[in-house]
Amino acid sequence: MMILALILVVALMIPITAILVDSPLGRSIARRLEGRGDEGGGGSGGGANLRDLQQKVDVLESDVEELNRSLSATREELQFLQRLLEKPKRQPNA
């Protein structure tokens, strides 16, 4: 019985993991991890700081774009729900 439960948990974790990795949150985490992996490079200190700042600005800009898309979708959903609530209920003729 435990083996069946373990197989079921693993089978359910595969699509959940795929959904999380493909989500904006997963992409944001991947970008941040990717940016931190480049810290070991050489070169001048000022140039490295400038590159780090540019990477941070790029990450923040992409996060803002994702938030704007999410906000737009939320606004559309809110407008749809408001239209549904404003419609008068039809009374069945009894």
> Gyration radius, to the nearest Å?
23 Å
The portion of residues assigned to helices is: over 70%
Count the E strands: 0
Task: Give the overall pLDDT as a whole number.
Answer: 82
Keywords:
flat, 94 residues, 3 helices, 0% strand, mainly alpha
Describe this structure in words.
Helices cover 81% and strands 0% of the residues. The chain has helices at residues 2-22, 24-36, 45-86. The longest helix has 42 residues, at 45-86. The termini are far apart.
Describe, in short, the structure shown:
This protein has 94 residues and is mainly α. It has helices at residues 2-22, 24-36, 45-86.
What is the topological layout?
Layout lengths: L1 H21 L1 H13 L8 H42 L8
Helix pairs in contact: 2-3
